[in-house]
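Pair request: fold both.
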Amino acid sequence: MRAGEELPPLEIPITRTLIVAGAIASRDYQDVHHDAELARRKGSPDIFMNILTTNGLVGRYITDHFGPAAVLRKVAIRLGAPNYPGDTMVLTGTVEQVDGDTATVRVVGANGIGSHVTGMVTVTVPSGGAV
């Protein structure tokens, strides 16, 4: 783990199933996350991913890279362009700072219309943890 290290990109196909399953798993029953007709009536072209699903995908991206011993200490993200079905979100990351066994990683998740998520994740990888 070193400052400037780039994490390999992770491509995530945005499917209706992913969007709806994420909303159900996080108990977010807002209609814009599962009912296309009601989402359109509210001005959206389709259903879209909720922030809790995005947060989980960002966490997965970090722990997939740093290994099962990695502990997320802080996740500070901001949403931008919606994730709609049929698109692909590509997560990328750069280690910004390292302090002992703790790193701060800048994460961006981009889709076909822009940056869906941007933020910083602080992760601790205990000695002997995979990297």
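--- second member of the pair ---
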Amino acid sequence: MVDRKDIGSWLSGPDTSNISKFPGQRLGLPESGRGSMARAGRRILALCIDWGLSYLIAIAFFDANPNAILAIFAAEQMVLVGTLGYSVGHRIMGIQVTRLDGGPAGLLAGVVRTLLVCLVIPAIIVDADHRGLHDKAMKTILVRR
């Protein structure tokens, strides 16, 4: 017997049965609130805060040298994300970096994530769960605190 799917499956559009309804669902995270995936707005604001602080420090001590700004930003990210799980901007925006199993990110993840964020491209290529390549490489996620 021939049914609609056999004749005109293109009328139904693509199969979306195994696509998650919200970022983080495939990872077992809640849709909203504590422990849910940090959305782009919080991430971008946290990045702006961290970059702005790095810029202010570079103005005060290094005559706003662009390399100094990047080095200060990288040092802040490596040390704070690697040890505490969040940078100053992350803390202000209420987000935190954790491993997929919920544990702390760790120093190695802090260093590698930061190097990839400084390359920019890995951070702007994201999947359906809003995880950038830098997070996927280190098996980390950025969640709401």
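Observation on the second member. DSSP finds seven helices and two strands in the chain.
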